[in-house]
Amino acid sequence: MDNFSEDIADNNNTLNCTIDHTIHQTLSPVIYVLVFVVGLPANCLSLYYAYLQVKVKNELGIYLCNLTIADLLYIFSLPFWLQYVLQHDNWTYDELLCKICGIVLYENIYISVAFLCCISIDRYLAVVHPFRCHQFRTVKAAVVVSIAIWTKEILTSCLLFTHGEVTKDSESHVVCFEHYPIKTWEHSINYYRFTAGFLFPFCLLIFSYYGILRVVRKSHGTQKKKKIQIIRLVSSTIIIFLVCFGPYHVLLLIRSIFENSCEFAASIFNLYHITLLLTTFNCVADPILYCFSSESTYQYFAKLGDTCLKCLRCIQTETKESYAMSTPETVKKIREQAELDPELLTKLHARKVEETSISTLPKEGVI
Fold first, then answer.
1. Which CATH number do you get for residue 128?
2. Which of 50, 154, 163, 322 has a CB 3.0–4.6 Å from the CB of 65, allowing a cystine?
3. Which helix (H) or strand (E) holds 110?
4. What residues does the G-protein coupled receptors family 1 profile domain cover (predicted)?
Protein backbone atom coordinates (compact mmCIF):
# COMPACT_ATOMS: atom_id res chain seq x y z
CA MET A 1 0.00 0.00 0.00
CA ASP A 2 2.85 2.37 0.78
CA ASN A 3 4.36 1.88 -2.70
CA PHE A 4 0.93 2.40 -4.27
CA SER A 5 0.45 5.65 -2.31
CA GLU A 6 3.91 6.86 -3.33
CA ASP A 7 3.17 6.14 -7.01
CA ILE A 8 -0.08 8.13 -6.79
CA ALA A 9 1.71 11.06 -5.14
CA ASP A 10 4.51 10.94 -7.72
CA ASN A 11 2.02 10.90 -10.60
CA ASN A 12 0.24 13.92 -9.14
CA ASN A 13 3.56 15.79 -8.94
CA THR A 14 4.24 14.98 -12.61
CA LEU A 15 0.79 16.20 -13.64
CA ASN A 16 1.32 19.50 -11.81
CA CYS A 17 4.84 20.04 -13.22
CA THR A 18 5.17 22.23 -16.34
CA ILE A 19 8.57 22.08 -18.09
CA ASP A 20 9.75 23.70 -21.30
CA HIS A 21 10.73 20.83 -23.66
CA THR A 22 12.02 23.10 -26.46
CA ILE A 23 15.43 21.44 -26.43
CA HIS A 24 13.73 18.20 -27.48
CA GLN A 25 12.36 19.82 -30.62
CA THR A 26 15.56 21.70 -31.56
CA LEU A 27 18.80 20.02 -30.47
CA SER A 28 17.73 16.42 -29.88
CA PRO A 29 16.47 15.67 -33.44
CA VAL A 30 19.71 17.00 -34.96
CA ILE A 31 21.84 14.81 -32.68
CA TYR A 32 19.67 11.72 -33.23
CA VAL A 33 19.79 12.06 -37.02
CA LEU A 34 23.55 12.74 -36.98
CA VAL A 35 24.30 9.74 -34.76
CA PHE A 36 22.05 7.49 -36.85
CA VAL A 37 23.55 8.56 -40.21
CA VAL A 38 27.18 8.38 -39.02
CA GLY A 39 26.90 5.68 -36.37
CA LEU A 40 25.09 3.01 -38.39
CA PRO A 41 27.70 2.57 -41.19
CA ALA A 42 30.59 3.18 -38.77
CA ASN A 43 29.42 0.46 -36.39
CA CYS A 44 28.67 -1.96 -39.24
CA LEU A 45 32.26 -1.48 -40.43
CA SER A 46 33.48 -1.87 -36.86
CA LEU A 47 31.51 -5.10 -36.49
CA TYR A 48 33.27 -6.45 -39.56
CA TYR A 49 36.73 -5.63 -38.19
CA ALA A 50 35.77 -7.10 -34.82
CA TYR A 51 34.76 -10.29 -36.61
CA LEU A 52 38.17 -10.41 -38.32
CA GLN A 53 39.85 -10.19 -34.94
CA VAL A 54 37.64 -12.93 -33.50
CA LYS A 55 38.51 -15.05 -36.53
CA VAL A 56 42.22 -14.91 -35.64
CA LYS A 57 41.46 -15.85 -32.00
CA ASN A 58 41.95 -12.36 -30.57
CA GLU A 59 39.93 -11.98 -27.36
CA LEU A 60 39.87 -8.20 -27.81
CA GLY A 61 37.61 -8.72 -30.83
CA ILE A 62 34.97 -10.34 -28.58
CA TYR A 63 34.75 -7.23 -26.40
CA LEU A 64 34.73 -4.89 -29.40
CA CYS A 65 32.04 -7.00 -31.06
CA ASN A 66 29.77 -6.82 -27.98
CA LEU A 67 30.41 -3.08 -27.69
CA THR A 68 29.29 -2.63 -31.30
CA ILE A 69 26.17 -4.78 -30.83
CA ALA A 70 25.12 -2.61 -27.86
CA ASP A 71 25.65 0.51 -29.98
CA LEU A 72 23.66 -0.89 -32.90
CA LEU A 73 20.73 -1.84 -30.66
CA TYR A 74 20.53 1.73 -29.44
CA ILE A 75 20.94 3.16 -32.96
CA PHE A 76 17.95 1.07 -34.12
CA SER A 77 15.86 2.60 -31.32
CA LEU A 78 16.70 6.18 -32.37
CA PRO A 79 13.83 6.49 -34.91
CA PHE A 80 11.34 5.89 -32.07
CA TRP A 81 13.00 8.52 -29.87
CA LEU A 82 13.14 10.92 -32.85
CA GLN A 83 9.40 10.61 -33.42
CA TYR A 84 8.82 11.00 -29.68
CA VAL A 85 10.67 14.33 -29.38
CA LEU A 86 9.26 15.70 -32.65
CA GLN A 87 5.75 15.08 -31.30
CA HIS A 88 6.52 17.28 -28.27
CA ASP A 89 7.36 14.39 -25.93
CA ASN A 90 4.20 12.44 -26.67
CA TRP A 91 4.64 8.66 -26.84
CA THR A 92 2.16 7.25 -29.37
CA TYR A 93 3.15 3.57 -29.02
CA ASP A 94 2.25 1.16 -26.23
CA GLU A 95 3.95 1.08 -22.85
CA LEU A 96 5.86 -2.14 -23.59
CA LEU A 97 7.72 -0.52 -26.50
CA CYS A 98 8.46 2.50 -24.29
CA LYS A 99 9.98 0.20 -21.68
CA ILE A 100 12.02 -1.68 -24.32
CA CYS A 101 13.41 1.55 -25.83
CA GLY A 102 14.18 2.92 -22.38
CA ILE A 103 15.97 -0.25 -21.33
CA VAL A 104 17.96 -0.24 -24.59
CA LEU A 105 18.96 3.37 -23.90
CA TYR A 106 20.25 2.59 -20.42
CA GLU A 107 21.70 -0.76 -21.43
CA ASN A 108 23.76 0.97 -24.12
CA ILE A 109 25.28 3.17 -21.43
CA TYR A 110 26.14 0.50 -18.90
CA ILE A 111 26.99 -2.33 -21.27
CA SER A 112 29.29 0.09 -23.12
CA VAL A 113 30.86 1.07 -19.79
CA ALA A 114 31.36 -2.60 -18.88
CA PHE A 115 33.05 -3.51 -22.16
CA LEU A 116 35.22 -0.39 -22.12
CA CYS A 117 36.44 -1.65 -18.75
CA CYS A 118 37.00 -5.12 -20.21
CA ILE A 119 39.15 -3.64 -22.99
CA SER A 120 41.27 -1.68 -20.51
CA ILE A 121 41.67 -4.64 -18.12
CA ASP A 122 42.56 -6.93 -21.03
CA ARG A 123 45.30 -4.52 -22.13
CA TYR A 124 46.46 -4.20 -18.51
CA LEU A 125 46.83 -7.97 -18.16
CA ALA A 126 48.56 -8.19 -21.55
CA VAL A 127 51.12 -5.52 -20.68
CA VAL A 128 51.62 -5.81 -16.91
CA HIS A 129 51.05 -9.57 -16.37
CA PRO A 130 51.56 -11.19 -19.82
CA PHE A 131 52.47 -14.66 -18.49
CA ARG A 132 50.76 -14.90 -15.10
CA CYS A 133 47.25 -14.06 -16.40
CA HIS A 134 47.42 -15.62 -19.84
CA GLN A 135 44.48 -17.96 -19.11
CA PHE A 136 42.19 -14.94 -18.61
CA ARG A 137 43.07 -13.55 -22.04
CA THR A 138 41.49 -16.21 -24.24
CA VAL A 139 38.48 -16.13 -26.55
CA LYS A 140 36.66 -18.57 -24.28
CA ALA A 141 37.21 -16.37 -21.22
CA ALA A 142 36.07 -13.29 -23.17
CA VAL A 143 32.86 -15.09 -24.22
CA VAL A 144 32.12 -16.09 -20.60
CA VAL A 145 32.71 -12.53 -19.39
CA SER A 146 30.49 -11.13 -22.17
CA ILE A 147 27.62 -13.49 -21.32
CA ALA A 148 27.96 -12.55 -17.64
CA ILE A 149 27.80 -8.81 -18.45
CA TRP A 150 24.72 -9.11 -20.66
CA THR A 151 22.94 -11.36 -18.14
CA LYS A 152 23.73 -9.07 -15.22
CA GLU A 153 22.57 -5.91 -17.02
CA ILE A 154 19.36 -7.46 -18.36
CA LEU A 155 18.43 -8.88 -14.92
CA THR A 156 19.23 -5.53 -13.30
CA SER A 157 16.93 -3.75 -15.76
CA CYS A 158 14.12 -6.22 -15.15
CA LEU A 159 14.44 -5.76 -11.38
CA LEU A 160 14.85 -1.99 -11.36
CA PHE A 161 12.36 -0.93 -14.00
CA THR A 162 9.30 -2.71 -12.65
CA HIS A 163 7.32 0.50 -12.22
CA GLY A 164 5.15 2.06 -14.89
CA GLU A 165 7.31 4.01 -17.33
CA VAL A 166 4.49 5.92 -19.04
CA THR A 167 2.97 8.95 -17.32
CA LYS A 168 1.04 12.06 -18.34
CA ASP A 169 2.37 15.57 -17.92
CA SER A 170 0.50 18.83 -17.40
CA GLU A 171 -0.20 19.08 -21.16
CA SER A 172 -1.74 15.56 -21.23
CA HIS A 173 1.20 14.25 -23.25
CA VAL A 174 2.21 10.65 -22.66
CA VAL A 175 5.77 10.90 -21.35
CA CYS A 176 8.07 7.90 -21.76
CA PHE A 177 10.83 7.07 -19.26
CA GLU A 178 10.94 10.60 -17.86
CA HIS A 179 9.67 11.76 -14.48
CA TYR A 180 9.85 15.36 -13.26
CA PRO A 181 10.54 15.73 -10.44
CA ILE A 182 12.30 12.40 -9.76
CA LYS A 183 10.02 9.80 -8.26
CA THR A 184 10.68 8.42 -4.80
CA TRP A 185 11.78 4.98 -5.97
CA GLU A 186 14.25 6.46 -8.48
CA HIS A 187 16.65 7.88 -5.89
CA SER A 188 18.10 4.55 -4.76
CA ILE A 189 18.32 3.34 -8.38
CA ASN A 190 20.23 6.47 -9.42
CA TYR A 191 22.68 6.09 -6.54
CA TYR A 192 23.31 2.52 -7.65
CA ARG A 193 23.79 3.62 -11.27
CA PHE A 194 26.27 6.30 -10.24
CA THR A 195 28.39 4.10 -7.95
CA ALA A 196 28.25 0.69 -9.70
CA GLY A 197 27.72 1.96 -13.24
CA PHE A 198 30.13 4.90 -13.31
CA LEU A 199 32.38 5.44 -10.27
CA PHE A 200 33.61 1.87 -9.83
CA PRO A 201 34.33 1.36 -13.59
CA PHE A 202 36.10 4.73 -13.65
CA CYS A 203 38.41 3.59 -10.83
CA LEU A 204 39.16 0.40 -12.78
CA LEU A 205 40.00 2.42 -15.89
CA ILE A 206 42.35 4.74 -13.99
CA PHE A 207 44.03 1.77 -12.29
CA SER A 208 44.52 0.01 -15.64
CA TYR A 209 45.79 3.14 -17.38
CA TYR A 210 48.28 3.91 -14.61
CA GLY A 211 49.64 0.34 -14.57
CA ILE A 212 49.97 0.21 -18.36
CA LEU A 213 51.61 3.62 -18.61
CA ARG A 214 54.14 2.75 -15.88
CA VAL A 215 55.16 -0.56 -17.48
CA VAL A 216 55.25 0.74 -21.06
CA ARG A 217 57.50 3.67 -20.13
CA LYS A 218 59.96 1.39 -18.32
CA SER A 219 59.97 -1.30 -21.01
CA HIS A 220 62.97 -1.27 -23.34
CA GLY A 221 62.04 -4.37 -25.33
CA THR A 222 58.71 -3.08 -26.60
CA GLN A 223 58.85 -1.29 -29.94
CA LYS A 224 58.09 2.42 -29.89
CA LYS A 225 55.24 2.01 -32.39
CA LYS A 226 53.66 -0.70 -30.22
CA LYS A 227 53.96 1.50 -27.12
CA ILE A 228 52.19 4.35 -28.88
CA GLN A 229 49.43 2.00 -30.05
CA ILE A 230 48.81 0.68 -26.52
CA ILE A 231 48.76 4.17 -25.01
CA ARG A 232 46.39 5.41 -27.72
CA LEU A 233 43.97 2.53 -27.14
CA VAL A 234 43.78 3.02 -23.37
CA SER A 235 43.76 6.84 -23.60
CA SER A 236 40.92 6.86 -26.13
CA THR A 237 38.97 4.48 -23.88
CA ILE A 238 39.23 6.85 -20.92
CA ILE A 239 38.44 9.93 -23.05
CA ILE A 240 35.30 8.29 -24.46
CA PHE A 241 34.30 7.21 -20.97
CA LEU A 242 34.73 10.67 -19.42
CA VAL A 243 33.25 12.75 -22.26
CA CYS A 244 30.27 10.53 -23.04
CA PHE A 245 29.33 9.27 -19.57
CA GLY A 246 30.96 11.59 -17.01
CA PRO A 247 28.73 14.70 -17.30
CA TYR A 248 25.53 12.63 -17.41
CA HIS A 249 26.28 10.74 -14.20
CA VAL A 250 27.33 13.92 -12.38
CA LEU A 251 23.99 15.54 -13.29
CA LEU A 252 22.19 12.31 -12.37
CA LEU A 253 23.73 12.45 -8.89
CA ILE A 254 22.86 16.14 -8.51
CA ARG A 255 19.26 15.47 -9.46
CA SER A 256 19.02 12.56 -7.04
CA ILE A 257 20.32 14.67 -4.15
CA PHE A 258 18.64 18.03 -4.73
CA GLU A 259 15.60 17.48 -6.97
CA ASN A 260 12.49 17.50 -4.82
CA SER A 261 10.44 20.15 -6.60
CA CYS A 262 9.24 21.02 -10.07
CA GLU A 263 11.17 24.32 -9.98
CA PHE A 264 14.52 22.56 -9.57
CA ALA A 265 13.62 20.00 -12.27
CA ALA A 266 12.76 22.82 -14.70
CA SER A 267 15.99 24.72 -13.96
CA ILE A 268 18.24 21.72 -14.63
CA PHE A 269 16.20 20.17 -17.45
CA ASN A 270 18.18 21.54 -20.43
CA LEU A 271 21.61 20.84 -18.93
CA TYR A 272 20.60 17.32 -17.94
CA HIS A 273 19.37 16.50 -21.44
CA ILE A 274 22.51 17.91 -23.06
CA THR A 275 24.52 15.44 -20.97
CA LEU A 276 22.10 12.69 -21.95
CA LEU A 277 22.74 13.54 -25.61
CA LEU A 278 26.48 13.20 -24.95
CA THR A 279 25.90 9.54 -24.06
CA THR A 280 24.43 9.13 -27.54
CA PHE A 281 27.77 10.15 -29.10
CA ASN A 282 29.21 7.00 -27.58
CA CYS A 283 27.81 5.15 -30.63
CA VAL A 284 30.00 7.31 -32.88
CA ALA A 285 33.05 7.40 -30.61
CA ASP A 286 33.34 3.65 -30.03
CA PRO A 287 34.44 2.87 -33.64
CA ILE A 288 37.51 5.07 -32.96
CA LEU A 289 38.76 2.26 -30.71
CA TYR A 290 39.06 0.02 -33.77
CA CYS A 291 41.74 2.32 -35.16
CA PHE A 292 43.94 1.47 -32.18
CA SER A 293 42.86 -2.10 -31.44
CA SER A 294 45.22 -3.72 -33.96
CA GLU A 295 48.20 -2.64 -36.02
CA SER A 296 46.61 -3.68 -39.31
CA THR A 297 43.41 -1.71 -38.69
CA TYR A 298 45.35 1.35 -37.58
CA GLN A 299 47.62 1.16 -40.63
CA TYR A 300 44.58 0.88 -42.91
CA PHE A 301 43.11 4.14 -41.62
CA ALA A 302 46.55 5.79 -41.50
CA LYS A 303 47.23 4.88 -45.16
CA LEU A 304 43.80 6.16 -46.12
CA GLY A 305 44.54 9.50 -44.45
CA ASP A 306 48.05 9.70 -45.97
CA THR A 307 46.67 9.03 -49.45
CA CYS A 308 44.17 11.87 -49.12
CA LEU A 309 46.89 14.25 -47.86
CA LYS A 310 49.27 13.26 -50.67
CA CYS A 311 46.60 13.88 -53.29
CA LEU A 312 45.97 17.36 -51.88
CA ARG A 313 49.70 18.14 -51.73
CA CYS A 314 50.28 16.92 -55.30
CA ILE A 315 47.50 19.13 -56.61
CA GLN A 316 48.88 22.18 -54.80
CA THR A 317 52.49 21.46 -55.89
CA GLU A 318 51.56 20.91 -59.52
CA THR A 319 49.59 24.14 -59.58
CA LYS A 320 52.48 26.15 -58.13
CA GLU A 321 55.13 24.57 -60.38
CA SER A 322 53.11 24.90 -63.58
CA TYR A 323 52.41 28.53 -62.81
CA ALA A 324 56.04 29.31 -62.01
CA MET A 325 57.58 27.54 -65.05
CA SER A 326 55.03 28.78 -67.53
CA THR A 327 55.60 32.44 -66.71
CA PRO A 328 57.34 34.15 -69.67
CA GLU A 329 59.22 36.53 -67.33
CA THR A 330 60.80 33.57 -65.50
CA VAL A 331 62.01 31.90 -68.72
CA LYS A 332 63.36 35.18 -70.06
CA LYS A 333 65.25 35.85 -66.81
CA ILE A 334 66.90 32.41 -66.84
CA ARG A 335 68.02 32.87 -70.47
CA GLU A 336 69.52 36.29 -69.72
CA GLN A 337 71.45 34.91 -66.73
CA ALA A 338 72.70 31.98 -68.83
CA GLU A 339 74.03 34.33 -71.53
CA LEU A 340 75.91 36.38 -68.95
CA ASP A 341 77.21 33.30 -67.06
CA PRO A 342 78.05 30.26 -69.30
CA GLU A 343 78.72 28.13 -66.20
CA LEU A 344 75.10 28.58 -65.11
CA LEU A 345 73.95 27.08 -68.42
CA THR A 346 76.23 24.06 -67.84
CA LYS A 347 74.86 23.56 -64.29
CA LEU A 348 71.25 23.77 -65.47
CA HIS A 349 71.93 21.23 -68.21
CA ALA A 350 73.61 18.81 -65.73
CA ARG A 351 70.72 19.17 -63.29
CA LYS A 352 68.20 18.39 -66.00
CA VAL A 353 70.09 15.24 -67.00
CA GLU A 354 70.25 14.12 -63.34
CA GLU A 355 66.47 14.66 -62.81
CA THR A 356 65.72 12.72 -66.00
CA SER A 357 67.85 9.75 -64.90
CA ILE A 358 66.20 9.67 -61.46
CA SER A 359 62.67 9.76 -62.91
CA THR A 360 63.40 6.71 -65.02
CA LEU A 361 64.39 4.56 -61.99
CA PRO A 362 61.76 2.09 -60.72
CA LYS A 363 59.64 3.34 -57.80
CA GLU A 364 60.04 1.88 -54.33
CA GLY A 365 58.18 -1.40 -53.98
CA VAL A 366 57.86 -1.94 -57.75
CA ILE A 367 59.72 -4.87 -59.27
1. 1.20.1070.10
2. 50
3. helix 95-128
4. 42-290
